[in-house]
Structures are given as C-alpha cells and as structure tokens.
Design goal:
Blueprint lengths: L3 H40 L2 E8 L4 H16 L4 E7 L5 H12 L5 E5 L5 E3 L1 H7 L3 E4 L4 E3 L13 H17 L4 H9 L3 E3 H7 L4 E2 L3 H8 L3 E5 L2 E4 L6 E4 L4 H9 L2 H20 L5 H19 L4 H19 L5 H16 L9 H27 L13 E8 L2 E6 L2 E7 L9 E8 L2 E6 L23
Parallel strand pairs: 1-2, 1-11, 2-3, 3-5, 4-6, 5-8, 14-16
Antiparallel strand pairs: 6-7, 9-10, 12-13, 12-15, 13-14, 15-16
Helix pairs in contact: 2-3, 3-4, 5-6, 10-11, 10-12, 10-14, 12-13, 12-14, 13-14
Length: 463
Amino acid sequence: MVRPSIAAGGSRRLLVRRARVVVWLLLVLAGVFLLAEATARAQAPSVLVVTVDGVITPVMSDHVRDALDRAEREGFQALLVQLDTPGGLDTSMREIVQAFLNARVPVIVYVSPQGARAASAGAIITLASHVAAMAPGTSIGAATPIDLEGGDLAQKIINDAASYAESIADRRGRNVEFAIDAVREGRSASASEALELGVVELVAGERAELLATLDGRSVELTPGNVVTLRTEGAELVEAELGLARSILQWLADPNLAFLFISIGTLAILYELANPGIGGGAIVGVILLVLAFTALSVFPVNAAGVILLVLAAALFIAELFAPGIGVFAAGGTVALVLGGLFLFRGPIGVDPAVMLPTAIVAGAAALALGRMAWRTRKLAGVSGTDAIVGSRGVVQRIENGEAHVFLQGSWWGARARSGPLRPGQEVRVVGMDGLRLIVEAEDDPGGHPTGPDRGARPIEGGER
C-alpha cells in the first residue's frame, strides 16, 4: 500500500515537469514567431529617403552621408535623395559625390517636386548617383563656378571643375558633353531634354511611379558587384534632419546672417545710448553669436568682415560725435558693401534684404546718436539739485516752523524773507542741512530783504 504522502509528492513532481515542458514550448514558439517576423521584415523591401532642399552646406553634407551610412548598415534596398537645390559649397558637394561613388547601396537622386532644380553643385551630385531621375517641370545644369561678384573664376578653376564633372559623368555612363558644357558654358536642360540627352535615366511624376519603374533594374555598385532593385511597393523610411541640424541648416542662410549682424549691432548701440539693465546688450550678443554661427558654415571673404566691423565702428562713433550724420551715412555704405563682399562663391545676401536693412540701421544709428546727445546735455537731478526749484504748498505751521510736503516727503521749511502761512505756495531756493529755504510764490521780486546767513544756495538753482 502506497503511503498518501509519497503519492502526493510524486504528483507534484510530475506537475512541475509538465509545467517546465509547457514553458519551454512557449519560449520556442515565441522565438520562432520573432524569427519569422524579423525574416519577413528583412525580406520586405524598404527604401531610405533623405530630402535635400536648399543650399548644399556642410550641415546638409553630413546629413546625406549619415543617411547613406544608415542605408548600408540597416540593409535598405536603396537610398533615395529627393533634391531641390540652387547649388552650394564646392567642398560640401565633393564630400557628397565621394560618398556616392563609394556607396555599397544603390543611390537614387530624384529631382523633385515639380518646379525643383538641380543647379550648380546639385547637377554634379545628380550625375554621381547610380540612378538619376527627374520630375516633370524640373531642370538640371548651370554648374559653372562663379566668383564673389558673380563672374567666371580663373580658367584653371573652371578646367578643374569641368574635368571633375566629366570624370563623374563618364563613371556613371552619362552624357559627358553635357557635363562639360554645364560647367564651361552654364548649360542647363529640362527634364524631358535631360532624358533625351542621356543625363538622367527616367522622368517620373511621383515617388511611387519612380519606384515602380525602377523595380527589377540592375545597378552596378562596383566593378563586378551588380545588384537588382526590388522597389515596387517598397516601404519609404524618412531620414529626419533632426532638431540640431535643422537649426543649423536654418541658420545657414546668408540673409539671416546679415540680419542678425545688423540687428545685433543696433541692439548694442541702443544699450550704449541708453544704459539700463542690459537688455539691449544681451539681445545684441545673442544675435551676433547666431550670426557668427551662420558665418562659420559659409566661406567668408575677409574684406566683407572688415567692412562690417567698420560699419559697426562708424555707428558707434555716431553716438559719441553726433553731427549731420556723416558717421551714420558712412556706416550705412560700409554695411551695404560688407553684405556684397561677405561671402565667396554663389552664396550671397539678397539685395532686397541688404538694402532696406542697411538703410534702417543707418537711420537708427542717427536717431540713437541724437538721443545720446540730448541725454548728455541734461543736468544732473540727484541730491539737492533735485530739490532746488521744486514747488510745494505749506501744509501747517508748528512751533514756528512750516511743514511742506514735497516729492513724497515731509520737509521742515523756513522762509528766506517774510512769514509763511498754511496753504501758501512756495518755491525751494536753497537748503540749510535738511531744512528747506523757500520763498513765497506771490513774492514778486523773489529777492531776500537781507542777507540769508543760514541758506546754502545750490549752484545752478534759482536764486
């Protein structure tokens, strides 16, 4: 006969073993499910999208290269670059081109939306892609390097840029003649013309059409390394610029840099003309720091910086030597010239922003100079100078002394000549310690009848 305790113990062990088996089965099923989901996700086509809208700057170069690294690292089918740019810095363009030429994932440049352009540096970036596409109503070209005044650079620089564009077009099997003419002659083409010339591979109205057309196309990444695109119905994943880079890219605007410099200088001028709690100086310093941040993104001409410093110096001189506005006028001219010569290359300050800003800055400097001049002419109003000449009314007479309420305080007072009575209007003509020396307003002469030995007249006050 089996004892009850032994039977109960065996049942518990059996239940524990069964529970362990169930737990292991559940873990195995969960692992299989997760593996299947990961496999399905890996097999589902996805394309990483990066939007380049605006000037090609170091900020945008870093963003594009980071997106390319992510596409390679996370196994995306391709990197789709949606491009709309007037051009940008040569160094930033070359960084992007070098990344595209060495990419381990297909790079598709899509000039979009309609009305967009791939001009100057944007044209070279488009030529460097594995697949180049354009939306209807877009354009590409005009890649001639220009100098600060908008003219052509030295011939050796143009030759270098032309050979660079030629080598890229030849590497990607595109129209070499167009690439050379885009640099040397500033040639540009519409989307349909670029397709006919062999500058781009296709024209598509939207992303879905582009990806459907590219599906099944073979792309050679490196010699002997050919991949086939699987893009129809692919999931599009946006590569966000991020808050920090968005702010830097927003600051990377020559017009903003010029505005910040001008307004920041005026804020500091206001603080110099009206010293107070420092609000103007704080605002001015913040704006100047933002301006210097923007200037750090662009190639800056030393002549432009010197002219801006000269403009600030002339505006400050207007505060200390106001006249007919010569310094303010000179500062305005220096500010305009500084805006013209500040940046090198195709980037510059829009005249529609520069001229009104300079005129307003000059007028404000002139007005602040007048304000500072009037402030310096005012007499001091502290201590006894603030009391002498004030008027009040005798409120009462106690123990032979008049009491006058003046400027929020009670004062003892005595007349310089004659008696005082309550309700009489008096004027302060001096002080004897903390006692006022007054005279009645109805005294027509206002002169003492005898020497006032206790009075201490205040220089500059009425006697």
